[in-house]
Amino acid sequence: TTALVWLRRDLRCDDHAALYHALRRHTQVYCAFVFDTTILDALPSREDRRVAFIHASVAELHRGLQQLAASSGAPGGGLIVRHGPAEACIVQLARDLGVDEVLVNRDYEPEARARDQRVAAALQAHGIAFSDHKDQALLDRDEVLTRQGQPYSVFTPYKRAWLQQLDAFQLKAYPVARHARHLAPPPPGERLPPLAELGFAPTNLATLPLPTGMQGAQRLLQDFLPRMAAYHQARDYPGRKGVSYLSVHLRFGTVSIRQLAALAARQAEEGSEGAQTWLSELAWRDFYFMILWHHPHVVTQCFKPECERVQWDEAPALWQAWCEARTGYPLVDAAMRQLHQTGYMHNRLRMVVASFLTKDLGIDWRRGERHFAEHLNDYDLAANNGGWQWAASTGCDAQPWFRIFNPITQSQRFDPEGRFIRRYLPELARVPDAHIHFPAAMKPLELAACGLQLGVDYPLPVVDHARARERTLMRFTPL
Ligand code: FAD
């Protein structure tokens, strides 16, 4: 029998659930990726690092599949690449290849779920089976439930149950190579269209410390492994290299979550506090997939329905200032520049800028969430939505809404010498450490001493934090 594995956000050929099941069940297995015009046409810019990342990773995956086939003596192997509406492309391809089954790895996003249901129905009409497999998450859907059989809505008890259930079986890699002899060669004439043919321009991706593809992911992992033990101490400081930078690889599946979690679990068992903390971060990822699966309304609405009553401000000038890194709060502005220049933003800063937008500027979390969706390399609906709703206090956590981040004290705590700020705001390079967190508090002589003209070289603060805080308390009071 014959199968087609349709790869989407799982761009690797090792430890891959759908590929493994296809190779076990069938004697001829094709692999395909579609540059989906339904998604690509909706992107706001023709210069998109994500598309460039995927393009490079797909090229590497094609070579990876060829090597895998060659090493097991199969005649071919490789990736079939299409450019068009994914649903129609896959149904057509499955029919042209005459396959018996199409296999995918499960996607938790409502639109993707609806798409997969339509594809399954269309394939069924042609007598072709469709199956989806857990691969992106370690534990998904109903695997972690409360004693009452309900999905969790608070992270800490979820994590406790998640850790209890995360056993050796869940962490075991799928041994794809063992069955690779069933890989089928793509039909003759297949090629990977260059980026320009897909309608996209080159980006600055190659200049960033972000290697692409499966090999890139392993390079970042090797770099992180010796640092994992110190993760719990270093992870909150954006000026230090404390985190893994693997999020984009997890987003596009160029690395297996099982490989990462197994490494962390082993170190955690040996007593590494850093590994325990990192494993908790991977639990957050599963948590938000689970929330999105059970509560798809969060895509457009607050997790807590009562929060729909909150009156947000339109505030066009403040919105522009936030987007353009001109708020007058250096940590916020440096973070926004990091986002626009690199497509990455450190987790602590995501929390700070999201809190600033919603609690200092009084702007709806949905607008900030969309802005992140346009710019983050690792943009993931579940984690992004979860993070924004957490910051706005509209989400699924026990955090009270009156806990409001102070952008100045956050800066003093987590970028004490202003190392991160100076990297992205060179105009503040000469400002002494004591004032780097809020130059607006400097006296005229101090400003003159470092040659800084506020309102000219660097903006005055767009809001007063103490007053903004009072307004937010009022905004949430009727709840
Ligand atoms: P590390 O600290 O090395 O963590 C390892 C991995 O754990 C990450 O790669 C990620 O997959 C996962 N992880 C860590 N924290 C979280 C979290 N809070 N929620 C879910 N998964 C987590 N993460 C995304 O992957 N995509 C997003 O679009 C996204 N948007 C966010 C928006 C906001 C407002 C906030 C507060 C957080 C968001 N996060 C998002 C979570 C987190 O900021 C990033 O995963 C992390 O900064 C990525 O860097 P890293 O890979 O070096 O992380």
Give an overview of the whole structure:
- By secondary structure, the chain is α/β, with parallel strands linked by helices.
- The chain folds into three domains: 135 residues, 3-Layer(aba) Sandwich (Rossmann fold); 117 residues, Serine Threonine Protein Phosphatase 5, Tetratricopeptide repeat (Alpha Horseshoe), CATH 1.25.40.80; 172 residues, DNA Cyclobutane Dipyrimidine Photolyase, subunit A, domain 3 (Orthogonal Bundle), CATH 1.10.579.
- It contains 21 helices and five strands.
- The chain has a five-stranded parallel beta sheet.
- α5 links the parallel β4 and β5.
- α11 crosses α12 and α15 packs across α17.
- The longest helix has 23 residues.
- The protein is globular, with a radius of gyration of 24 Å.
- The chain binds flavin-adenine dinucleotide (FAD).
- The site of flavin-adenine dinucleotide has 28 residues, from α10, α12, α15 and α17.
- Its EC number is 4.1.99.3.
What are the SSEs and their pairings?
Blueprint: E1 2-7, H1 17-25, E2 28-36, H2 37-40, H3 49-71, E3 79-84, H4 86-97, E4 101-105, H5 110-125, E5 129-133, H6 155-165, H7 168-171, H8 213-224, H9 231-234, H10 247-252, H11 257-269, H12 273-294, H13 316-323, H14 330-342, H15 347-360, H16 365-375, H17 381-392, H18 407-414, H19 419-424, H20 444-449, H21 465-476
Parallel strand pairs: 1-2, 1-4, 2-3, 4-5
Helix pairs in contact: 4-5, 6-12, 11-12, 12-17, 14-15, 15-17, 16-17
The chain binds flavin-adenine dinucleotide.
